[in-house]
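Hi there,

I know you've been waiting on this one. I reran it after we fixed the sequence typo, so this is the corrected version. Both the input and the resulting structure follow.
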Amino acid sequence: MAHEHEISDTLQNRKAYVPRALSQAWAGETAELARRRLKTLIQWLERNGESGAAASLREGLEKTLTVLKLGLPPALRTFLVTTNAIENLMGSARRISRNVTRWRAGEMISRWTAAGPLHAKQGFHRIKGYRHLPLLARALRAQASQLDATVEAAEQCQLSPLPSNSTPNGTSPAPR
């Protein structure tokens, strides 16, 4: 009987480890620290027979670090890493629109669609870290200009277009 209890405790500890490890990783001060912690978690998952979870985490690793890469203060980061605000807005729109029994014309549909966000607005609270929103704007502008420079460099490095009488492997097409 004690053996079953030990197994149960071990399973509970394993279940608790993953959310705790994820939280610690995302609470890191830098994207690099979070990346190292997440890679450690991926290795742990693989060693413990959770290859599907490891693969899923590996696939979305860089996307999960997007907000950390922007270098924002913790209060604003916390708001941005959840979808709560969007879900709240969409839920309000759904609740309002389900009361509509007959959708008549386009103008009426537009009015009901606009009523959802207006109703949701009443329940909105100030964003925690709202004073840091200018930092977010600056970080996004910096990311955009970095992306623009990368695209421009890639365009300059592209090969010249192929002559109309050649194929991608450099040979002439077979005569017809």
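Quick highlight: The radius of gyration is 26 Å.

Best,
R. S.
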